[in-house]
Amino acid sequence: MKYSNIAFLSLGSNIGDRHHFMDQAIWEISTLPELQKLKQSERLETAPLENTNQPYFLNQILKVMVSSAFTLPCLLDSLQGIEDKLGRKRRSWKGPREIDIDILTYEAVVMKTDFLHLPHHSMYSRPFIKQLLTDMGEIGVYALYTELNHEKHYSTV
């Protein structure tokens, strides 16, 4: 299988045995033949941001290589399938969750659909994302999207 696309995934959990949910999610991701885990950050405990009346989160970032034959919708469906398998319930907007797996970036793709925004809004709204990417030695991906976003909004072509 040819792997050629790099994606960064954000994992979070704030209900139950958070470490167990994170471990299970990483294991499930590693069993997908279309993905190859390249690197993972340390886990970081963070306060909830938008909906603050809930337990603290455990967060982590994975860098994965994705098969060139695996489309973004397939990747999203597979990750949501893992969330469902691990018992995620969508209780309320930005509410507590057993596991949350977001696609932060996929190559240099910038897109906004009803189902997927790339880069994910949390790249800029959640300071721990930048911190974890820095700790992984991957701040370049943050800088790339910052530059692309700047060019998109301020370009004078």
What secondary-structure arrangement, pairings included, does this model have?
Layout: E1 3-13, H1 18-30, E2 35-40, E3 44-46, E4 57-67, H2 72-85, E5 100-106, E6 111-112, E7 117-118, H3 122-125, H4 127-135, H5 139-154
Antiparallel strand pairs: 1-4, 1-5, 2-4, 3-4, 6-7
What is the distance, rounded to the nearest whole angstrom, between the alpha carbons of the first and last residues? 40 Å
Give the overall silhouette.
globular
Radius of gyration: 15 Å
Helix content: 25-40%
What does the main sheet amount to? 5 strands, antiparallel
Counting DSSP H or I runs of 4 or more residues, the number of helices is 5
Order of helices and strands: EHEEEHEEEHHH
Structural class: alpha+beta
Unreliably modeled segments: 153-157
Number of strands: 7
Percentage beta strand: 25-35%
Query: What is the average of the pLDDT values?
Result: 87
Pathway: Cofactor biosynthesis; tetrahydrofolate biosynthesis; 2-amino-4-hydroxy-6-hydroxymethyl-7,8-dihydropteridine diphosphate from 7,8-dihydroneopterin triphosphate: step 4/4
Domain 7,8-dihydro-6-hydroxymethylpterin-pyrophosphokinase: 8-136
Family: Belongs to the HPPK family.
Enzyme class: transferase
